What does this fold into?
Amino acid sequence: MKVLKKIDLLSAGGVFALIGVIWGLVTALLAIALGSFATSVLPGIGATVGVGLISIIVFPVTYGIIGFMSGIISALLYNIVANWIGGIKIDLK
It folds into this structure.
């Protein structure tokens, strides 16, 4: 059994950033679908389609930045706590 004692900050940030980008794309696609539905039900609100299309860029970038920062903060906090209690035991097979 091995013990995970330290996590590389940039590595964790990169993984969390990619997860954030993927989640941002999913959220943007849902926003586009909701905007299209809202436009078909209420034709007077055509601006929602534009907002949905902008979200395909804004959401992934924003979620990626937030993911990167939260990954670094989480890894830093893990490294501090792992020094106190010894880390997580993992079985690498």
User: Anything to note?
Assistant: The longest helix spans residues 47-85. Residues 2-90 form one domain. The mean pLDDT is 88. The beta strands are 2-4, 88-90.
